[in-house]
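Write out this protein's structure.
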Amino acid sequence: MARTVDDLRNEIREAVGRYERVESTAFTKEALAAICEAVEYDIGTGSLPSKARMRAGILWKIGELDDDDPDRASSAFRKAELEAVATALRDS
């Protein structure tokens, strides 16, 4: 059976120590920050960067983007991107 976007998001949340969600929601800034830490993307200290910056950084660190340009990750992760993130976290 094909994994849904919700299944993939929850797998990723659990892989980085966040809680599974029953309702369908995009990642919070805090969840994205946890994913950044898991893939070793440095978000610095202080306030969290934008969601787009963190998404781009995650995709860059797992080899899905050539750089961490937030303009290239301005919307929520697509299913293929979620699959790549989940795979990267499983393999780490």
